[in-house]
Amino acid sequence: YEIYLNGMAGAVPRLPTDLTRLEELAEHRLGAGPVGYVAGSAGDGSTARANRAALDRQWIVPRLLRDVRERDLTVEVLGRTLPAPLALAPVGVLSIVHPDAESAAARAAAAQGVPYVLSSASSTPMEEVAEVMGDAERWFQLYWAKDREVTRSFLARARATGFSVLVVTLDTPMLGWRPRDLERAYLPFLHGVGTANYFSDPAFGAGLAKPVHEDPDAAVLHFLGMFGDPGKTWPDLAFLREHWDGPIVLKGVLHPDDARLAADAGMDGVVVSNHGGRQVAGCVGAADALPGVAEAVGDRLTVLFDSGVRTGDDIFKALALGARAVLVGRPYVYGLALDGHSGVEHVVRSLLAEFDLTLALSGHRTPATIDGACLAATPV
Ligand code: FNR
Question: Could you say which cofactors this protein requires (predicted)?
Fold first, then answer.
């Protein structure tokens, strides 16, 4: 009701509450390079479209007369209680859209109590991000480097600075074919501080002939050569288990058999995701893959979801399809681009307010009662 009260007092929200309009506004304000980086997806954009189509063909079937005065949005995720089933997805090199970059996103997440997942490829060293977050919930996303020492160093740094959950992104052993970025010679790596989290790492530095500031081009090439490793296989996960004593979540899982392998390998969760459509073109829409994964491992692993979430009803649908919570990517990046940490807070608050209303108007007081019976799918 805050928005209505403010409206009656003559104040309208500074940013659109419709996140599609917010996205359009941000794309209009940002230059072609940054828009290409954020909006860009693999190939002709087919997977990003599939993500939306998969959510758009699910429809909520509300229930009535169920006393929804008091609602409680909290969910248990990986042994922690979150205020709502929402977290900010890891997005690298946020300095491309705003000078306050990851620190601003992290501050906003902390203010709203939602977990912030910091990318390995952040433009801000993880220690600085931890500093602005205080005790707030933060997770660390790992790009699993070829260089074992760098991986070990990242895990030790993340642990020492209070990151609690390790999110290992497995869909990016190399970067996808992203025409809008390729046309700009891959903007993130031309961007001076693009990889500061690596550049500040002692193990990364040890692999360079000269210090980063003396030969930044060589440092970027070194980064590109080692940040991912297409040679990894399932048994390699034992290394991560050995060096991380908190929960480990595998991000990018779409096939039920991979979800089973994750459970067999002693992992704690999966994020059903196709990286927002940025890796494999012609890939299954993430929400279409979600029920299969939830069915395969829902009783053994925490199932999270991202790719295409834009509204509160999308969150509801993802939960009904089997997710415990969702991550959101591009919308908060656009909020950041338009208004720094306030813009990110605006996006989080809008999503949560809409989710709360959707929950109530569909006849639910908590996320726990949302299940497959709450949806009707458009017949294909
Ligand atoms: C990403 N994503 C991502 N994922 C990851 O594990 N590490 C990373 O560094 C990045 N970087 C990144 C940059 C940009 C610009 C985008 C848009 C996305 C993927 C991200 O975590 C998430 O999976 C998607 O963004 C979810 O899809 P939506 O919400 O953007 O549709």
Answer: FMN
